[in-house]
Amino acid sequence: MELIQLTPWDLSIAAVLVLLLAGLSFHLQLGIEKRLLIATARSAAQLSLLGLVLKIIFAQSNPITIGLLTLFMLLVASYEVMNRQQRRYRGYWGMGVGIFSMFLSSFSVTLLVLLVILQVEPWYTPQYLIPLLGMMLGNTMTGVALSLDNLNQNAWQQRASIEARLMLGHDWQSAIAEIRRNALRTGLIPIMNAMAAAGVVSIPGMMTGQILAGSPPLEAAKYQILILFLVSASIGLGSMTAIWIGSKHLFDERQRLRLDRLTQPKQ
Amino acid sequence: MSQLSLYNLQVQQLSPISLEIPAGQCITIAGPSGCGKTQLLRAIADLDPHQGEVQLNGLTQEEMPAPKWRKQVGYLPAESAWWRAQVGDHFNDPDPQQFEALGFTLEWLEREVSRLSTGERQRLALLRLLSNRPQVLLLDEPTANLDQATARQVEQLISDYRHTDQAAVIWVTHDSAQHQRSAHHYCFKGNTLEHCTWN
Prior knowledge:
Largest sheet of chain B: 6 strands, mixed
Helix content of chain B: 25-40%
Structural class of chain A: mainly alpha
Distance between the termini of chain B: 34 Å
Oligomer: heterodimer
Number of helices of chain B: 6
CATH topology of chain B: Rossmann fold
CATH class of chain B: Alpha Beta
Distance between the termini of chain A: 54 Å
Largest sheet of chain A: none
Number of strands of chain B: 10
Radius of gyration of chain B: 16 Å
Strand content of chain B: 15-25%
Number of strands of chain A: 0
Mean pLDDT of chain A: 94
Number of helices of chain A: 10
Mean pLDDT of chain B: 91
Shape of chain B: globular
Number of domains of chain B: 1
Helix content of chain A: over 70%
């Protein structure tokens, strides 16, 4: 089976459906038609642009351009992580925690796939590197964002208990141990739900895409399993790193709770 | 001999404070609320960043790991916090005699924290602190929510502990009677901590 090429006409039919939805929103006074149309236009523009950029990058296969693109992806993901925090770290730490933890987890897991599992030649072949890294970063971003948000919210709410333990001579790690555990659990829940539902409730997007593109279903399933495992590992590693350095930064060298290092939530 | 010394300790808006409290001595501090009494105690316990030096038996805060310092320089905040469900989960080595001195028994260790009254929590928090056997006690209005009889029990227990363990005590209070009973009392006049006299 060959990939069925989509014509602009095909996409227009799908776009008409969204337009109908916007019209319905206008008619029912839901008030979301403007945002819906903007979001539709955005996704179309962003994805077409990505397609163009990838076409060029795939053609060149230049390590420097590929490196810059991965860096860009990492920065955008870290910005998203920071943006989803109710209470962020002040200064460089706001972005830094995300950059460091996702670099450590997503990049190393992607490298492992390319070098050991897929054994691509050369390892930075963009057709493999970019989609894999995107999948790792996209999922790890959610896990890290949830973990950090939970960590800092709980540290704020339970500051009296944390300090009570410090006053009694507990070290910072035991004073925040429960909050930390909770944060990690929160970060891992989405991927665990996704794994439990995979194949029964939902057919994951990547597998759907591969089947539509003509892969045998069993091959598509194997790839999907591989991705789920790697994504879980990346989320786990990323969340643990973020929680570790994030919680350490809540205390100073004299093990004082320093919530002044967090910003106030926007109202 | 445990002696607490403050050298030019600077906390927020307060002018630098220098004080020596010999082992077994208790000083009381009074002053309007919001004048920085709590901040002073927190700085001595090394819970907030501060300027100046605090020494215990000649050793500065920085010369000791922070948890060790806080174990020896025990701070009792005005409001106690509990992090587990049961009272007993918060104690390492409860002393039955001290429990009895405040009208408790060790059976209280099995109670749920959420069912205790404010006064009970406050007294149990003191016992929790004393079970660490600190050399210095920093007490932030330890009898604020107690009736007179229990307040007396608390005062007696602290005084006994101070004598047997030769602990240095800083006692922040609003109660002028309590203030007058102590031999060494200090007041905040504006931003300065001064020896004060009762006329």
